[in-house]
Amino acid sequence: MTKNHQPKPTWERKGDEDWAATVHVRLVLDHDAPSDLADEVLAEAHQLVHEEGLPALDLLGDPVTYAQTVADERIPEEHRARIDAHGLTPGERVSGSFLSLGFSGLLFCGLQWLSGGLWVGIGWPSLTVTSAIVLGTTLAAGALGAHAAGRIRGSWYFAAAAAGSVCAGVGAAPLVPAGQLFAVPAPALMLAFVALITAAVKFPDTTIDRWFTLTPSGPDDEAWFTRLDGLLRGRHAMPSAQARDHVREARHHLASPPGAEPATDVFGDVEVYALRLSEGPRRSQRFARREFYASGFLALCLTVMLIGNLTEPDPSPFWIAGNVAALGAILWSLRSEWHRSTTRNRPTTPSPGNPPSPDSPS
């Protein structure tokens, strides 16, 4: 989710435009390529097609195969090591959370406008709950960023603080004075969420990445191994026992030969080493299982919200319809994620000179 794009070329043929769109989608979605690289590749292809005067399909071949070739030749291992299974860095995880908050708030205000009129009444209970939700979402974004950066303990601290803030706000709402303090036009609240969305888009993800990422350097082997364990469990969704086994093997390997070389010199960059350990036929299965757990938790929250809406004295049909639609979508995704988490990919036969991944079965 990069935020700097160069202008897209204008293709003369509709077939070339479709070819370029396929290449761009395959690069970004299948190979987690930086969007800047995809734009650069398409600009080069556009120039070549323009100079030769031939259709892109005839000149450069099948778009899926072309995207695979570009990925093999031009996406560095260091880039893939910095992102998770969704192609996101820790900073992009955080900004994506604020984007979700902004769009959710925009939708909430729009539904409130349709169901309750132009003016939205604000009182101490609503202020308390809203503040708790905003604080909880901010802390949850920190938890996602820390987890993607491999800081497992920090992510648990953030998650516990997020849950505590929301529970405290909901629990304190009945204790504060009731009644309306003032009223605000719904469009004004919507503009506030538009400002949040704009800030999330404009703020540099690389800055947030630096807040969460601290790559160990120098002779501190313990910090290197701790970081390796966190990356395997967080960014690459590896079970704790399997991650500990990999760390134990790396420790044993480092201690086996005589000498006092640091782990950085023996194994290289810790993010790249963690990526190599995580690759294998079980990688997609692990991420699907993580998505299944997250969707299950969200389905539980939506079910509780739906029960709350149905038990209100005067339930709003807008909220009930939206709640039911969201719950249905989550339940459908649960079915797909369960299938992917229980279906093991067939391991590919390694080519000569390329040993099997440490994650592949022996």
Low-pLDDT stretches are 347-362
**Tally of DSSP helical segments:** 16
The number of strands is 2
Strand order of the largest sheet: 1-2
Number of domains: 4
Quick recap of the structure?
This protein has helices at 14-30, 35-52, 56-60, 63-74, 77-82, 90-116, 124-148, 152-172, 186-202, 205-212, 221-233, 240-255, 263-267, 270-278, 283-310, 317-342, and strands at 119-123, 180-185. It has 362 residues and is mainly alpha-helical.
Please explain how this structure is put together.
It is a single chain. The chain is mainly alpha-helical. The protein has 4 domains: 14-75; 88-214, no CATH class; 218-270; 280-346. Helix content is 70%, strand content 3%. It has 16 helices and 2 strands. It has helices spanning 14-30, 35-52, 56-60, 63-74, 77-82, 90-116, 124-148, 152-172, 186-202, 205-212, 221-233, 240-255, 263-267, 270-278, 283-310, 317-342, and strands at 119-123, 180-185. A two-stranded antiparallel sheet has the order 1-2. α7 packs antiparallel against α8 (152-172) and α11 (221-233) crosses α14. The chain starts with 13 loop residues before the first helix and ends in a 20-residue tail after the last helix.
